[in-house]
């Protein structure tokens, strides 16, 4: 068989069900022939996003896969891969490469060289006989250690080369392995956690990839410690749990602000503690316990008194055992912390009630978010945001419904990313009501790929918050806008959704927001890709926008 056929069969052995792709690559034919369904996108960045969203919801098992042609195809995929790399998403990327005799010749684009900084690993299949071992290494890197995109470049002269079928007979799916932490490290950290006067747990997406939500809940309940999550880790802890604070990024709700501000010990689990525009800057004077599976994160941005290296699920089990050994008489019935959380949240929501329930026209985005929250059971949905205002308006208020029911992203945050993630999430969880919130600027970047969802009968809902301007740039573009209207953008996106084969409505009346959401959900249940366009105000107010220095 040909090398591309061998790759397709290896992917099948590893459980791959979908291939997100953009032509021309004959891998599309090879995978389709053996029952791996191709999803052909309209542009490569969205195709990468589809694989990204699939991997996040499917926990990388199997990973999302994206394939593209050499040169322009690989070049156009770069931004999507950068997003996946920054958020540690396990996906397999399979670009074609130029013939080996042309490898490295200026100005031909080399995926091996160009993607080396934004992939966990990148390797070229240099001879046909290496296809099995190269793919085995790729899947091993996908399944073990810190997650991230892995790339295998397939030179075009290798792609159609013949390979012996014995390679497939000998190929066995890669087995993953996990490691516990050093027991003394855990014991020291557990003692510090027990002695803390106002501890807080700071949980990241490593908890999601480790399937460690149950253990995180057990530890929080055992010690009655409040839990916040990172943007990428949102949904790792049940957000309607009495000990849940919500999530923090460049914005946060009142509970995160209050409890993180007063904490003396911060226990980070499955988080990198990266200082970044989309992460919460933690106030000085805290004692840090930092449990991660990648030592590169330790002491990167904060000094760590108690470093712990290991898988989040196993580490949390060790902490539970250590805390019980150190303090057998722990009182799990102390509800003081939960009562304080409820009180702080009530006061914060009261402050925001005028925005959340406003009847103003144009509609405030917060009214759209509030109506969505009151009309959709979060346990039945998967929700993601887009860059800019929709992310910062949605994330502090929305309470997710369990692990992987919210896809938070943002360390590398190109406008339009959420649409591809939404399509991939629906492929991974077809039973869920899968929704992305995006602004009109984000729709302008990737909106034509709504047609990809419609054409492939992937019934997502895209919510477009249309204020006909880049409101978040009001202060940055004041003079240019005064002179030339530089912030203004426009379009009737509901009409575009209909033209692309989906169900769509345009909503301008605040009283119709909730009913429109229910109509859109019904359309998705009927198998239609759906789009709701809300005519919204130029809202620039945000909850606790980066108050910590």
Features:
549 residues; alpha/beta; six-stranded parallel sheet; 22 helices; 18 strands; 39% helix; 16% strand
Strand order of the largest sheet: 2-1-3-4-6-5
Class based on secondary structure composition and strand pairing: alpha/beta
On the 0 to 100 scale, the average pLDDT is 96
* End-to-end C-alpha gap: 60 Å
Low-confidence region ranges: none
In percent, how helical is the residue content?
25-40%
Shape, per Cα inertia axes:
globular
Give the count of helical stretches. Answer: 22
Q: Rounded to an integer, what's the Rg over CA atoms?
A: 24 Å
Question: Major beta sheet, specifics?
Answer: 6 strands, parallel
Strand content: 15-25%
Q: In total, how many beta strands?
A: 18
Write the layout of secondary structure elements.
Layout: H1 3-13, E1 18-21, H2 27-33, E2 37-40, H3 44-57, E3 64-68, H4 72-86, E4 91-97, H5 111-114, E5 121-124, H6 131-143, E6 150-155, H7 156-159, H8 166-170, H9 183-195, E7 199-203, H10 206-209, H11 213-223, E8 227-230, E9 244-248, H12 254-262, E10 265-269, E11 287-292, E12 306-309, H13 312-326, H14 336-356, H15 365-375, E13 381-384, H16 389-394, E14 406-407, H17 417-428, E15 433-439, H18 440-446, H19 450-455, E16 461-466, H20 478-484, H21 493-499, E17 503-507, H22 513-525, E18 530-535
Parallel strand pairs: 1-2, 1-3, 3-4, 4-6, 5-6, 7-8, 7-10, 8-9, 10-11, 11-12, 13-14, 13-15, 15-16, 16-18, 17-18
Helix pairs in contact: 3-4, 3-17, 9-13, 11-13, 12-14, 15-22
């Amino acid at each position: 068989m040909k090398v591309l056929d061998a790759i397709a069969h290896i992917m099948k052995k590893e459980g791959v069900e979908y291939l997100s792709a953009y032509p021309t690559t004959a891998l599309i034919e090879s995978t389709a022939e053996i029952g791996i369904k191709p999803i052909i996108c309209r542009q490569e960045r969205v195709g990468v996003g589809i694989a990204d969203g699939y991997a996040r919801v499917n926990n990388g098992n199997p990973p999302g896969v994206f394939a593209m042609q050499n040169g322009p195809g690989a070049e156009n995929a770069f931004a999507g891969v950068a997003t996946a790399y920054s958020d540690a998403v396990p996906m397999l990327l399979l670009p074609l490469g130029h013939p080996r005799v042309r490898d490295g010749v200026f100005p031909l684009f080399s995926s091996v060289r160009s993607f080396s900084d934004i992939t966990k690993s990148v390797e070229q299949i240099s001879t046909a006989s290496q296809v099995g071992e190269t793919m085995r290494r790729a899947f091993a890197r996908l399944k073990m250690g810190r997650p991230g995109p892995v790339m295998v470049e397939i030179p075009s002269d290798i792609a159609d080369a013949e390979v012996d079928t014995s390679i497939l007979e000998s190929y066995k799916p890669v087995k993953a392995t996990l490691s516990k932490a050093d027991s003394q490290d855990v014991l020291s950290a557990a003692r510090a956690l027990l002695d803390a006067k106002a501890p807080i747990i700071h949980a990241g997406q490593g908890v999601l990839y480790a399937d460690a939500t149950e253990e995180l809940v057990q530890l929080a309940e055992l010690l009655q410690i409040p839990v916040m999550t990172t943007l990428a880790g949102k949904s790792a802890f049940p957000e309607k749990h009495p000990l849940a604070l919500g999530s923090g990024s460049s914005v946060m709700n009142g509970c995160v602000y209050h409890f993180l501000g007063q904490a003396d010990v911060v226990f980070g689990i499955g988080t990198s503690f990266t200082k970044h525009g989309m992460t919460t800057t933690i106030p000085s004077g805290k004692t840090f316990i930092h449990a991660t599976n990648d030592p590169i994160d330790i002491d990167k941005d904060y000094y760590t008194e108690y470093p712990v290296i290991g898988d989040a699920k196993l580490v949390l089990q060790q902490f539970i055992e250590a805390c019980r050994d150190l303090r057998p008489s722990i009182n799990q019935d102390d509800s003081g912390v939960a009562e304080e959380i409820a009180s702080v949240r009530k006061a914060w929501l009261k402050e925001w009630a005028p925005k959340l329930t406003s009847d103003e026209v144009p509609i405030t985005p917060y009214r759209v978010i509030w109506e969505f929250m009151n009309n959709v059971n979060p346990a039945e949905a998967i929700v993601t945001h887009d860059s800019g205002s929709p992310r910062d308006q949605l994330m502090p208020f929305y309470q997710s419904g369990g692990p992987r029911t919210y896809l938070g992203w943002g360390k590398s945050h190109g406008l339009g990313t959420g649409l591809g993630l939404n399509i991939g999430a629906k492929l991974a969880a077809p039973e869920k009501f899968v929704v992305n919130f995006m602004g009109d600027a984000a729709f302008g970047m990737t909106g034509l790929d709504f047609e990809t969802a419609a054409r492939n009968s992937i019934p997502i809902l895209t919510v477009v918050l249309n204020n006909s301007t880049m409101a978040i740039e009001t202060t940055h573009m004041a003079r240019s806008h005064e002179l030339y209207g530089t912030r203004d953008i426009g379009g009737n996106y509901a009409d575009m959704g209909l033209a692309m084969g989906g169900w769509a409505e345009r909503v301008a009346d605040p009283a119709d927001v909730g009913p429109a959401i229910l109509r859109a959900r019904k359309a998705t249940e009927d198998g239609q890709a759906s789009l709701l366009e809300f005519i919204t105000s130029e809202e620039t107010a945000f909850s606790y926008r980066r108050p910590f220095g």
